[in-house]
Amino acid sequence: MIQTLLIANRGEIACRIARTAGAMGIRTVAVYSEADAGALHVESCDAAVPIGPAPASDSYLRAEVIVEAARASGADAVHPGYGFLSENADFAAACGEAGIVFVGPPVSAIQAMGSKAEAKALMEKAGVQLVPGYHGLEQGLATLAAAAEKTGYPILLKASAGGGGRGMRVVRAPADLEPAIASAKRESVAAFGDDRLLVEKYLSRPRHVEVQVFADGYGNVVHLFERDCSVQRRHQKVLEEAPAPDLDPAIRAALGEAAVAAARAIGYVGAGTVEFILDATGFYFMEMNTRLQVEHPVTELITGIDLVEWQLRVAGGEALPLVQDQIVETGHAFEARLYAEDPVDFRPQTGRISHLRFPAQPVRVDTGVRQGDTVTIHYDPMIAKLIVHGRDRAEALGRLSKALAETEVAGLVTNQPFLARLAAHPSFKAAKVHTGFIEEHAAALIPEPQSPSSQLLALAALAILCHRADLTSKRAPASATASGDPYSPWHAVSGWRLNEAAVQTLILEQGEGRHVVSLRPEGAGYRMITPEAGLLVQGARDDKDRLRAVIGGAAITARLAFDGATVTLFLPEGPSTLSWIDPLGAAGELDDVGGRLTAPMPGKIISVQVKDGDVVTRGAPLVVLEAMKMEHTIAAPGDGRVAKVHYQVGDLVEEGADLLEFEPSDES
Predict the structure, then answer these.
(1) Side-chain-facing half-sphere of 531: CA atoms under 13 Å
(2) Are 32 and 14 a contacting pair, CB within 8 Å?
(3) Does the model's pTM come out above 0.85?
């Protein structure tokens, strides 16, 4: 049995591994960068070792530093989690050379599957059907272009050494191939240190189904059924489920057999995932991930098996606890990935989590953050995974929708409203899923922003007045006592005014819109007066931050979260955030940005394609910014001239930073 386990990862991954290891009586050691010194995963372990600056390349990706941390902490095993060094054969070898158990497959298995090209060659020899395409070593433009022509457009470029959508581009026409290759290679090198690409036939409406496999050091190999991961954006999974719905039993059985055969072919040991793509013609091998997957909890819920416990037992030299016939599938499970990202364009968001509340059981929440933590530019912006189980798919989906509705996050934008719409979509409920699902239903899943309704404005205004009253009532007694005339009516907090009713005016802001709301006391409440409507507004805030209101005769209950001059209202239809503005402090807050182009989010400059004085045309790429695992190209807004470039490749920039100065031509 392993005695001390160093977890070479961070966030929810490390927290999840620490939970099982601790339950098994194993001492756990966290590693942390300077940005993670106060992180939840550090608190979740028995000991912690600092490993360097915030950027992952200077900390979590430095194999020699991790191995030294394991030595220094007395760890006899290292669990790499998923991501970072989890599929790095050199790291696994370094652990072995140091006499430390690597909780993962043998180095030879990682090497065999580490290159998508080599993996496909092995699977081809094993008789597993592959997607038509090219996975050779020659990487010249002419070779890749010829392979694309032979395969037939549209094609998919994929990083040979990677996954998670990095270095992946869909190319629909020959004219788009060369820039797509350059971009995919650049992203692949940055992510995996390898620019080799594969060319595959692009299947427009396939399903992405993967099979969980497990093997021990005694030749035993089993599968733990399949997961459907078809619902993706930018080739990254958003929502997963197990088992895969509406799958022919013969296909289901064949997938399991093929996955076990793949694991046997490379002498696999430990947890792994064999990924397939399915369409009407059958299923094709895509890749094998030689690690635990982000979505492994859905498999745990339908099998009742703790996969991390199995990993630790197998790494400690034990045989698999069960044989294939003893592994039973029960019910259905979903996992939704809650990210700090814009639900309209999926751009990662950064900032402080000012309020965080998760639903109660029976929802499983895997998270690595707490209220008050900050999502930074340095790491994946995942906040949590919400995992639910039900007797069947319908029950599990109902529980997922309820869990999403009860989750509260304020302080930054999340994809929660998008996930809620996805779970409620009729086609998703009917299990009509494929990898293009989000694009096909974008109009329903990503609706155009709407101005807040009069009812929402009234609710927000009432919430703000109640909040102000609470603050004033706490300060007023001390102020009255200190005044020398504690009984003066001017110290009243009821809104009393001499000779007239007090009208309170609020300037509320949501997105780009501003709304003026006036409220006049009337009876036990207020009369809200706007250009569009006059509503009677009544209600009160309780001691649990709930606002119970009646607006225009309709009863509404909302939970509230305040952060400075911002209020977030958590409603059945989703969260809504509004700010109130002091009109005396608003003057001059908007500057004319002229011809400057700014960073849409914090990130790292990975390419500058122009220099001072260059003349460019509308749409020409100027700067490429990498943020949260994605590339973002800043393009010329019109014909013109680049007056000044402010940053170089490798520079880190904050959101809103002036990247360059652009002078439009007279004709633009």
Answers:
(1) 2
(2) no
(3) no
